[in-house]
Automatic annotation (TrEMBL):
Residues 60-172 form a coiled coil. This is CT398-like coiled coil hairpin domain-containing protein. InterPro entries: CT398_CC_hairpin. Residues 19-196 form the CT398-like coiled coil hairpin domain. Pfam families: CT398_CC. It comes from the Bacteria. Keywords: Coiled coil. It comes from Candidatus Segetimicrobium genomatis. The keyword Coiled coil applies.
């Protein structure tokens, strides 16, 4: 499969070959650019850690509030107990029925006090444990935030570097494309679009540089003669480097 190129003298495919090199580098730079990790996974980790830390702090506040509440209840119970004791032993109450009911009250208050004291001891432990959990959750959050910040700084730098590289290559591409005969350029672009960005391949050691199949005898000479020769297998344009 071949045809005459006409127009450009000497090595008409040289410009197209050079364009392919730029296109390949441009595609690689774009692939690296889109493969950059923008920190989404790390950010999700930070958000989860922040939620866990907020939950741990809320749990601590809840335990502290419960402790304060029980301490208050204990103080009230002790005050009542003291008052009833005064009533019982102060001699102001002499009615046996009233005395017996006071004794029952005192016994009930003593049970409540014992129960509250037990709860308060348990709540002390709970508050201490919640404090530790909250501190550890805050530390995890802070450490993840630091990692995210460091990652984002690296990401931004890499992105800026690649954007500059892509911009430079795109400008070079535009300039090089102008040197290629328009009809040949369109043909190359059509093939490249369908063949993974590669529209022109070198014949090396008798093999197609695209599909690695053996190239028919005589194709190299025809390419050297300035003809456009297409690989019969992968349909790419053949190029032969200068001898
Ligand atoms: Zn091929």
């Amino acid at each position: 499969m071949s045809e005459e190129t006409g127009g450009d003298s000497g090595r008409p495919l040289e410009h197209l070959w050079n364009l392919q090199q730029v296109d390949t580098r441009l595609a690689a730079a774009r692939a690296r650019r889109s493969a950059l990790d923008d920190g989404s996974a790390l950010r999700a980790g930070v958000e989860a850690a922040a939620r866990a830390a907020a939950q741990a702090v809320a749990q601590l506040h809840e335990s502290q509030a419960a402790l304060r509440d029980h301490e208050l209840q204990l103080a009230t119970t002790e005050a009542k107990h003291k008052k009833f004791e005064g009533d019982l032993y102060g001699g102001r109450v002499s009615n046996p029925k009233e005395l017996s009911s006071l004794q029952e009250e005192l016994a009930a208050l003593a049970r409540t006090r014992d129960h509250l004291e037990d709860r308060i001891l348990a709540l002390f432990d709970q508050v201490e444990a919640a404090k530790e959990a909250a501190q550890s959750a805050e530390a995890s959050k802070a450490s993840l935030e630091q990692r995210l910040a460091a990652h984002l700084a690296e990401y931004e730098a890499a992105r800026a570097r690649l954007d500059a590289e892509i911009e430079g290559l795109a400008a070079e591409r535009t300039a090089r494309a102008l040197l290629v005969e328009p009809r040949l350029l369109r043909r190359y672009e059509g093939i490249a679009a369908q063949e993974g960005g590669v529209g022109i391949v070198a014949i090396q050691n008798g093999l197609c540089g695209g599909c690695h199949n053996a190239v028919a005898l005589g194709f190299v000479d025809r390419v050297r003669d300035g003809q456009i020769v297409i690989c019969e297998r992968c349909r790419r344009i053949f190029y032969v480097s200068a001898p």
